[in-house]
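for the writeup, i need someone to sanity check this before i put it in the appendix. the sequnce is what the collaborator sent (i think, or maybe the updated version? ugh). structure was predicted straight from it, no edits. if anything looks off just tell me and ill rerun, i have time this weekend
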Amino acid sequence: FVEFAAGFGSGTCVNIGRSRGVGDAQRMEETLRAAAVVFQELADTAAPLGVRLVLEPVRRQEVNFIHSTLDGLAMARRVGRPNFGLMLDTYHMNLEDPDLFAALRQAAPYVWHMHFSDDNRCWPGSGSIDFPRVVDVLIEIGFGQNNDLPAYVSTEIKPWPDPDSAARLPI
């Protein structure tokens, strides 16, 4: 994927969140150490191609490690590569972060891609997440304001009540 992504230009992001596997809850430090080594190798491969890698913290029902934004931030710092950052998903943040707005502020330099999804996994505005405030905090932290590197926003939502409505309603 890295070689393919390089064709889209410098700064393109590749989400590697699920490539980490589910992790071993019984051997957490070993799991984190092994993940960091693999992520460093991936970042070192991607760097000469101008590709950035983003890790998505995911709710605990899906994986055994890197659930919260702060978990992702700790891993990004542990990896310590300038082309390794975060893709944050408001759905997962709402479940795993005590304060998703504070988490966004803390992770600011590493937030390169955002998934917008409400707490019901449907389009933004269909549940209870305060998306105008999310956007305000993203503006406050300078998301997308670095002209040298693109920032990305996308939705990851259920096709409810039907695919066409789900595509139209978030706009």
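Helices lie at 2-6, 28-46, 69-79, 90-96, 100-106, 131-140, 163-168. Strands lie at 13-15, 52-55, 84-89, 111-116, 152-155.
thx in advance!!
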